[in-house]
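Sync notes, pocket subgroup
Present: LS, DG
LS reminded everyone that the earlier model was apo-only. Rerun requested with S-adenosylmethionine included. Inputs:
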Amino acid sequence: MLQSARRRIDLLLGRRTEFAPPQPPPPADAQALRDDLERWLAGTPERYGRTFLHAKPLFVTRPERGLFARLENYGLVERLGPSIYQPRVRLFPLYGRFIATDLLTHGTPDQVFSLMFEQVYLVRNMDVQAGDRVLELCLGSGVNSLFAADAAAAVTGVDINERALAFARFNEALAPAVVPIEQVHGSLYEPLEGERTFDLILVNPPFELVPEDETWFLHSDGGEDGLDVVRRLLATTPGRLAPGGRFEIITWSPGSPDGPLLVDLMREGLPGMRLTVHVLDVQPIDAHLETFKDRPGFDAFRARLSAQQLDEVYFLFVHAAPTATPGVEVVTPEAEVQACRALAGAWL
Ligand SMILES: C[S@@+](CC[C@H](N)C(=O)[O-])C[C@H]1O[C@@H](n2cnc3c(N)ncnc32)[C@H](O)[C@@H]1O
């Protein structure tokens, strides 16, 4: 009762939004819509950013009216008054595409994950080769798969969240890739036929450290050490790789003085593989627990992490490939990290 009253107040005040996913444009209009968005972004980047990155209502000028009527038609904006529109999505420009995700005020667990550094890093560094059959687990908005599908022979994306799949359909319709993405609804490998294997498996899994009993976003709930989903998927990854198949993951991992837990899990889970570990950032673990620090049970949660000597959190991209010389190679790609930060920083 109290919760539903609070929800209604938040909706009225705009602190919370509950918009339906955008509607995919028909092929005949997709290119023109993209061109118009591109022109608007190039002409008035601050108005674009205010609307589609910072989610502020916009007083639309006469020349913008035609574009906004079309954006409204596809559910990307909502008309509040004669010339005032509010965005219903975030819309990230990336290498000629516009990727729609949820507003940060979409407060239910099915919120579709925004773009940030990790998508830029994955898009620029994923090892997609011509002829590859690619699987992306945890598809989200579809951003990584769309770029993979410009180079691969086939791409399949799995997500547990139907809302994410609806956004991925919109994003694909707005800027289709060379091959279409096969979308599958379900958890990790479960919805795929047992014998299906892939040349490249990509994943940017939920990775936040979340106390047990907490209801959190599907896109970020990684369990107490942030690695629950990773453990589950690694258990069956070897059986899903075709001969010579590669596996790539970008995620945060807690670590002890012995190093990041993710690397231990991957060494155990992917025997016979060479792991190339890109260290993208390292932060004190408390910086990642801020959100929950006032919740009941936080101290016990924090103590459980301390008992495992988990004091830091590593931001990692790991490329795993079969080799005659299994082992771990660590790299710190500083110039690439700077380049990705600069690109993603423009969205802040
Ligand atoms: C961190 S987001 C990444 C989304 C997308 N790959 C990207 O890079 O933007 C994680 C995604 O995993 C999905 N997810 C969470 N648990 C899952 C599961 N068990 N199986 C499949 N997808 C899952 C969420 O719905 C969310 O879309």
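DG: Residues 27-43 form the longest helix (17 residues).
LS: Residues 122 and 144 are 7 Å apart (CA to CA).
Action: DG to write up.
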